[in-house]
Amino acid sequence: MSPQTPDDGAEVSADGVPTVYNLADGCSLDDVERGQYYQATVNGVVAYGVFVDLTDGLSGLVHESNLLGTYDVGDELLVELSEVREDGDVSFEEVELADYETERVDAGESVAVADLEDTVGSTVTLEGEVVQIKQTGGPTIFHVRDESGVVPCAAFEEAGVRAYPQVELDDVIRLTGRVEMREAAVQIEVDSLERYEGEAAEDARERLADALDDYAEPNAVEPMVEWGAFEKLRPDLERVARRLREAVLEGRPIRMRHHADGDGLCASVPLQLALERFISEHHHDPDAPRHLLKRLPSKAPFYEMEDVTRDLNFALENRTRHGQKLPLLLMLDNGSTEEDTPAYRNLAHYDVPIVVVDHHHPDPDAVGPLVDEHVNPYLHDEDYRITTGMMSVELARMIDPSLTDELGHVPAVAGLADRSQAEVMDEFVELAAEKGYSEADLRDVGEALDYATFWLKYNDGRELINDALNVACDDRERHEELVEFLASRAERDVDKQLDAATSHVEHERLDNDAHLYRIDVENYAHRFTYPAPGKTTGEIHGRKVEETGDPVITIGYGPDFAVLRSDGVRLDIPEMVEELVDEIDGGGVSGGGHLVVGSIKFVEGMREDVISALVEKMADAELDEDLAATLPDE
Which of 30, 51, 427, 560 has the fewest Cβ atoms within 10 Å of its own Cβ atom? Predict the structure, then answer.
């Protein structure tokens, strides 16, 4: 039989050939028109013709009088609608076309994730990438990202059984389903789901990648204060902001590791708030902020193997149990030194991007090859007076500019907590004054943060810390009362510690005319209470600086560690540590920090040798008035 010519009502393509429609599952008789052509599959053969499916839910008969050939179950043919009877039965007739083009017909309107709340109760089609697959005791939940956001999509095979097992993480799919509200959030109840392959998948990925690039663009924000030294870091921070926004849009969890001190909290808490708001804006799962972001304090100023082992185990469990991607690791106020590299090398076995924002003296040769982004003032010939909290407030504003008013006091708290002598500190303090903070108030906030963090140990203490810092705090009066209480307790405990320790402080005058003070904090200070050895050493040091008005170095040591503070002396502690590693065989020396503050570890039996060698180097160090009263806390 010769091929048919198109009916007058049939759609034709731009090339003048007829269009044949391929109906997606979920399409109904309402999507079929007389005079149009459709793909059909034989689902049954009877004496009087064949039954065909246009979709899983749309079937009909092609009577033998309307068949052009002989068919078996599973064969495909082209049909057009012939009749819809009063009882709902549908009949088709076969057509044969010499040439045609196929066009996909989706069930329902094609809708972007960002617009789903306007389509509740409707059947829609969504195209996107699978970013999480979670099997529940009921349906399988596919979290699907399109150009504008991420939405959970529930597909049910049977209770606890994986639906669409051929679909994997990162696949590009097209699904059809009904938009419903579940626990005050949008969810799609899946009717059908199709996995893209080949060219169709590549085209969709390219489109999604272009959209992701647009949505990940950080906001352009004016600096809170004009500062030339800081502007050197802005391009690096913009790259990090883009990386973090991309992670959220891709459904990649973020594990935020920060030093557990005032500057570390001023860095991490604003970023936590900015990222949680960005997650809520682009994910329709109300639990997404909790599942996709973890803020984790680290006691040490580097990434310890204990911490990385916990983080990696947690991430692998979440990948197995909840179908999550492996996380992005965000290091704040630590992560720049050779001491971090064993942990980084452990993560290198897995797909875990590493981003570092820090102001400790870095070892770029050791760290650079292992991290994806590294922001550090030293990499731009600046130094630790640009604190991590100052950098992270700008980073948070690039992610969510609406936070600017809420964060106006935080850079000043960070600077005072880390004793920054930045030339713009007065401007940061003035900015905080606009929010009702005196300099004394700001110092109390920093002290309260240190005190609370000490007792929280490894707990992030979210609500307590938010109230103490007055970020995401809904009660200013409660914030002020809490800070007053914590700061006064901290002052009391510091006084008690120094009352016990001060009489045991040893003093000598070095060859360079600097004062050297030593204290055995293991034997002559209260242990396991506030303040910790580093803080105790810093408090003793501060009082000696005030007493003498001269260059001062203070060492607080225990069996296998020493913490160092310097004022008016250019120690370059990272360089000293490198020299001690080479000079003291069997010393097990490691450590680092800034030019004038740091910490060293060693094996217990070599303590005398290490500290003696360290003091010799201190005696040769250059006095430098520019380094007076510049004491960032470790």
Answer: 30
